[in-house]
Design goal:
There is one protein chain. This protein has 11 helices and 7 strands. The chain is α/β, with parallel strands linked by helices. It has a single domain, classed as Vaccinia Virus protein VP39 (Rossmann fold), CATH 3.40.50.150. It has a 7-stranded mixed beta sheet with strand order 3-2-1-4-5-7-6, sandwiched between helices. It starts with 7 loop residues before the first helix and ends with a strand. The mean pLDDT is 97.
Length: 271
């Protein structure tokens, strides 16, 4: 299908409603270790301007703000931005959280010293436009830090299970393109002077696999939205599939959950 025929505006609107459908916060807390590792490696300095793209409930923005950086967080889901603001207020941190679209950022060229995105920009429907905007607002010599899900592993299986019940538009590139070296080279390569990728792993902890499945079902926007569209029979089928995926990646045998999650960490320097 010709690229210009894709209705990115409608797809983006539908995505926004999906991510607005649940709190996300319990899942956001499970990626805090990854967030802190990325910010430590990107190493933004006090007073530098940092942008957290598709910031969700503000993980990356909050960690950067604790370093006395001047931080902006952007996400298209109003409910997530509201939770991010409450988290910043609770810590007494000054973060400029804004409702906005990573495919059309409201900032001048070369506005930020550091741009990060934590499992965020990878879900933008128009990947080339999102990458172009990310690069546009980053200063020459500025750092870009990303963490993305690769095509293999627990997260990709989890998302594919959802797609069987609620298929995404077939003309879109898969989000996991951002989790491959080839995809990142296509999206960023000609505009950065270096890209360093590292496959890393983290763990999602929970009281049990059943507890973790329920957490996803009720607090993760894509899960909550998908379940809401299904019959009781199909809800149970999807729940069983998700539970089985989580069980296969669980490293514990005592009834608790320690789910192994591989991800790709990317550090790039803008030309």
């Amino acid at each position: 299908m010709a690229k210009e025929s894709i209705d990115y505006q409608t797809i983006t609107k539908n995505q926004k409603e999906v991510w607005d459908a649940a709190s996300y916060q319990p899942i956001a807390l499970k990626i805090m270790d990854m967030t802190e590792d990325l910010i430590r490696i990107v190493d933004p300095r006090p007073t530098q301007r940092v942008l957290d793209l598709a910031c969700g409930t503000g993980n990356g923005a909050l960690v950067a703000a604790r370093r006395e950086c001047n931080v902006v967080g952007v996400d298209y889901a109003p409910s997530l931005i509201e939770r991010a603001r409450k988290r910043a207020d609770a810590e007494g941190l000054a973060v400029d959280f804004r409702i906005g679209d990573v495919q059309e950022l409201p900032f001048p060229d070369e506005s930020f010293d550091v741009v990060v995105s934590l499992f965020g920009v990878m879900f933008a429907p128009d990947q080339n436009k999102a990458a172009s905007e990310l690069l546009r607002v980053c200063k020459p010599g500025g750092k870009i830090g990303l963490i993305s899900w690769p095509p293999d592993g627990y997260a990709s299986e989890f998302l594919r299970a959802h797609a069987r019940y609620s298929p995404p538009p077939p003309e879109l590139n898969p989000p996991m393109r951002w989790g491959t070296e080839e995809g990142l080279q296509e999206l960023l390569g000609s505009n950065v002077r270096s890209i360093e990728n590292e496959v890393r792993r983290n763990f999602f902890y929970a009281k049990s696999i059943d507890h973790l499945t329920e957490e996803y079902r009720t607090t993760f926007g894509p899960s909550a939205s998908t379940f809401a569209t299904l019959s009781q029979e199909h809800q149970q089928q999807l729940k069983n599939e998700l539970t089985e995926i989580l069980r296969r990646y669980n490293l514990e045998s005592d009834g608790t959950a320690k789910v192994e999650a591989e991800y790709l960490q990317t550090i790039a320097i803008r030309t």
